[in-house]
Write a sequence for this structure.
């Protein structure tokens, strides 16, 4: 028995060996490089300037703008997703139904091209304004503004909010909801006290899948913000691709990474607490 | 009745919002002129030009081969890793899952630059530069976590006991793995593969930082064209891909519902 057990452990070691090597080589070591570059200057001497650069007025303004836009679009995604998830639940679809795929299908068309299509639609002389002019309606003029970027963010990340929320709502037993109604709760009470608390795990994972990519987007701000709107992702990209100041770029990234993991840590704490409260 | 109408209308609006850019692309792919707003007549010329444009063909081949190879390698490494990790004690399991979560949770841009710094530094040491292969390695790196996290849930529960029963009944490790473990986790392996494929096909940011000069995927090619105007053959190609995916989905859905009846 003992021999068998030790053999099994060895076998598991062999199974996990390729991943362990890969993990160290391409996840851990690259992150150590970011830390190394963050704390050194071009000559390789120790410095904290790259870290402080994050808090310089220009960069910090970009960061705050990114947080603002990501926060607004995440909230809009949540608000749009709940009705969709509730309606789809009422439809009593079979799992893997085609209807669910309809929301994922657009992701198979290149996302850059889809965002570029929004540029075509929203431009001053773009398609939406052509249609509006045809009906003698006032034109919209949101391209190169924050509104266009928010629209692009919501558009691009909405499926990542719909799916986890739908998956957690579909798991709620109908009897649980009906029990709330039978006990005299109206729809809003039922939603607030039964459906919403039970869907929080889905919402939290949705937030992780929307807020962080939205915070660090390059493309959406570049395409729909007219190149003048610098979000934190664009700042980092510039330091790496154009100005070639990798130390500065690494420093800003490091602070951003720390911010992201603190955010995730806090939201996972919140989710754990809620989980216990529900139980 | 009215409530039902509003529900359907809401879904319709969301779907319209989701599909309007795609419809725009498909319509523009048939436009005779390169203009993005003026319709100058129906034409198939952009479709004919797809395969005579060397940049598009190269980018298409790169995109597909990188997605397929990286997903297959990620499935091989990830599935074995998931089997091993699920058998670990809590301390090691948390360690491995913690690291596995890093590329999933971290911003793509941070993953991209961390790999860039790593490739450049080691490239200077061992005399290699950014290329097709650095993109491939990067894609494998961000694909493995998707496989592990898809396979892990399937490994919970009964399966370990059945596996040990198979061993007690004289099956070798390999046979027990192949006959007992693999069928059980196959749905997870497949969904991990599909997730990896999707993520790889659509990736821009990580590819943008880790690609060699002159190597392009469809995403980076579009990015490089945006300032000068995207070649409408790109719309044509994307429309074809979209229609193919749609048809595959419809057929598989039809087969599934035919099977269940």
């Amino acid at each position: 028995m003992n021999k068998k057990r030790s053999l099994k452990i060895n076998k598991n070691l062999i199974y996990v060996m390729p991943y362990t090597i890969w993990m160290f080589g391409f996840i851990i070591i690259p992150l150590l490089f970011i830390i190394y570059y963050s704390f050194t200057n071009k000559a390789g001497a120790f410095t904290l300037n790259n870290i402080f650069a994050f808090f310089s007025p220009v960069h910090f303004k970009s960061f705050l703008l990114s947080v603002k836009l990501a926060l607004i679009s995440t909230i809009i995604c949540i608000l749009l997703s709940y009705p969709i998830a509730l309606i789809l639940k009422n439809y009593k679809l079979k799992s893997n139904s085609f209807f669910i795929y309809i929301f994922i299908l657009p992701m198979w068309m290149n996302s850059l091209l889809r965002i570029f299509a929004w540029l075509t639609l929203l431009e001053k002389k773009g398609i939406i304004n052509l249609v509006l002019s045809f009906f003698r309606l006032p034109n919209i003029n949101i391209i190169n503004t924050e509104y266009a970027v928010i629209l692009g963010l919501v558009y691009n990340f909405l499926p990542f909010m719909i799916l986890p929320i739908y998956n957690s709502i579909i798991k709620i037993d109908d009897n649980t909801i009906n029990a709330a109604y039978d006990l005299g709760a109206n729809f809003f009470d039922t939603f607030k006290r039964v459906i919403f608390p039970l869907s929080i795990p889905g919402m939290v994972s949705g937030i992780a899948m929307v807020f962080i990519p939205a915070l660090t987007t390059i493309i959406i701000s570049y395409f729909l913000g007219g190149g003048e709107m610098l979000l934190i992702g664009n700042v980092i990209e510039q330091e790496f691709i154009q100005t070639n100041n990798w130390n500065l770029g690494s420093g800003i990234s490091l602070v951003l990474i720390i911010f992201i993991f603190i955010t995730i840590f806090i939201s996972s704490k919140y989710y754990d607490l809620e989980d216990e409260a529900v139980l | 009745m009215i409530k039902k109408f509003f529900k359907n209308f809401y879904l319709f609006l969301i779907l319209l919002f989701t599909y309007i850019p795609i419809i725009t692309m498909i319509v523009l792919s048939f436009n005779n002129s390169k203009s993005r707003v003026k319709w100058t007549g129906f034409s198939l010329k952009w479709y004919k030009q797809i395969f005579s444009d060397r940049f598009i063909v190269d980018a298409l081949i790169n995109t597909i081969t990188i997605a397929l190879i990286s997903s297959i390698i990620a499935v091989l490494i990830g599935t074995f890793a998931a089997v091993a990790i699920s058998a670990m004690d809590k301390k090691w399991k948390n360690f491995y899952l913690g690291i596995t979560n890093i590329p999933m949770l971290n911003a793509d841009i941070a993953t991209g630059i961390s790999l860039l710094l790593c490739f450049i530094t080691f490239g200077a040491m061992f005399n290699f530069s950014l290329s097709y292969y650095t993109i491939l390695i990067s894609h494998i790196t961000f694909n493995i976590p998707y496989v592990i996290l898809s396979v892990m849930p399937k490994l919970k529960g009964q399966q370990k006991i059945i596996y040990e029963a198979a061993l007690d009944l004289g099956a070798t490790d390999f046979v027990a793995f192949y006959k007992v473990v693999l069928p059980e986790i196959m749905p997870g392996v497949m969904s991990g593969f599909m997730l990896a494929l999707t993520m790889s096909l659509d990736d821009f940011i990580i590819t943008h930082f880790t690609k060699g000069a002159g190597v392009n995927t469809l995403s980076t090619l579009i990015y490089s064209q945006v300032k000068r105007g995207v070649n409408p053959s790109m719309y044509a190609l994307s429309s074809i891909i979209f229609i193919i995916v749609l048809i595959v989905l419809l057929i598989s859905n039809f087969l599934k519902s035919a099977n269940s009846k």
Remarks:
- Chain A touches chain B through 77 residues (CB under 8 Å).
- Confidence is low (pLDDT under 50) at residues 273-279 of chain A.
- DSSP finds twelve helices and no strands in chain A.
- Chain A has two domains: 1-38, 51-278.
